């Protein structure tokens, strides 16, 4: 039994880089060149001792690389977060996914030490207010979830909240929230939110939101929103919005909007809008608009517009028997002479 060394679990990006840019090897020794023996995460390597403690610093991405490394016990510095330790150098002994890393730790821990991992503790700031809570990760829980096929699936909980640095999560029952750096997410029951750096997501019940860097999404119940970098989306119940970089989408109930880079779309209920780069579309209820790059389309109720690059379309209507009837005959493409026909 090796009592002088311990196993530490951590995660890296799929290219083996950590959040500070250090690329970890798949074997041999890794060392921090700017080591400082402090209780701060900076200037050192860090991970979960024996794979037990806060999940705040474990990657939630499906393609993350889960690393098990061997560290001299004398080199470990306990950090304030539950189970987290800091060290200057380590020997990488395993690289894989969550399941394989958990299996490796469980199979090899007895060879190192019988010492139990430190108990989980709550970390409170000076104000006495509890910091963002995180799921407690334990490799034993991963092993206990072995399925009928003998695989090691991920840890499952009824309510999962996972945040990275500076994130805020608020979820009702059966919600699953995963936030990137500095993100803010608020979910109703049975919702699933995933946000990139600095994103803001607010979801109603049974909604699914996926946001890129700096995106803002607000949805009612049963909606599905996917936003690219810097996009803004607002959806009513039952809507489906997909936005590219810097796009803005506002949808009524049961609408479907797909926007390209920098597009702006506003729709009434039961509408379907598809916009190319830099397009602007405004539709009333029951309309169907498809715009090319830089096009502008404005449709009345139950209209259908198809625009080519740089086109401008406005649908017309007339009153018949006291009701508003909208024509769907505006289809144009910009011609070489500048006219749309």
From TrEMBL:
GO cellular component, alphabetical, reads:
cell outer membrane
According to the record, the residues making up region (Disordered) are 202-241, 304-341
Q: What does this protein do?
A: Ice nucleation proteins enable bacteria to nucleate crystallization in supercooled water.
Q: Does the keyword Secreted apply?
A: no
* Protein name from the UniProt record: Ice nucleation protein
Major subcellular site:
membrane
Q: Which UniProt keywords apply?
A: Cell outer membrane, Ice nucleation, Membrane, Repeat
Q: Where is the composition biased (Polar residues)?
A: 213-241
Compositional bias annotation for Low complexity? 202-212
Similarity comment text for this entry: Belongs to the bacterial ice nucleation protein family.
């Amino acid at each position: 039994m090796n009592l002088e060394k311990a196993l530490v679990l951590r995660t890296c990006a799929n290219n083996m880089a950590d959040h500070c840019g250090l690329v970890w090897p798949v074997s041999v020794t890794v060392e921090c060149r700017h080591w400082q023996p402090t209780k701060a995460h900076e200037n050192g390597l860090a991970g979960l001792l024996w794979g037990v403690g806060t999940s705040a610093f474990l990657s939630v991405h499906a393609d993350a690389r889960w690393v098990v490394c061997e560290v001299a016990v004398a080199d470990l510095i306990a950090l304030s977060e539950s189970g987290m330790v800091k060290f200057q150098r380590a020997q990488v002994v395993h690289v894989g996914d969550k399941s394989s890393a958990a299996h490796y730790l469980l199979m090899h821990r007895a060879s190192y030490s019988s010492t139990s991992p430190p108990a989980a503790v709550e970390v409170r700031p000076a104000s006495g207010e509890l910091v963002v809570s995180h799921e407690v990760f334990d490799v034993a829980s991963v092993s206990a979830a072995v399925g009928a096929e003998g695989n090691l699936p991920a840890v499952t909980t009824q309510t999962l909240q996972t945040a990275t640095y500076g994130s805020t999560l608020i979820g009702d029952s059966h919600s699953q929230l995963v936030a990137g750096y500095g993100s803010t997410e608020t979910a109703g029951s049975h919702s699933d939110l995933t946000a990139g750096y600095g994103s803001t997501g607010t979801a109603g019940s049974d909604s699914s939101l996926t946001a890129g860097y700096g995106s803002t999404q607000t949805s009612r119940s049963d909606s599905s929103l996917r936003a690219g970098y810097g996009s803004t989306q607002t959806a009513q119940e039952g809507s489906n919005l997909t936005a590219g970089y810097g796009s803005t989408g506002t949808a009524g109930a049961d609408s479907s909007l797909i926007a390209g880079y920098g597009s702006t779309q506003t729709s009434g209920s039961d509408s379907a809008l598809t916009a190319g780069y830099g397009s602007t579309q405004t539709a009333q209820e029951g309309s169907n608009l498809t715009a090319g790059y830089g096009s502008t389309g404005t449709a009345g109720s139950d209209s259908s517009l198809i625009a080519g690059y740089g086109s401008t379309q406005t649908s017309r209507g007339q009153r018949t028997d006291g009701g508003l009837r909208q024509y769907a005959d505006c289809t144009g493409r910009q011609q070489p002479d500048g006219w749309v026909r």
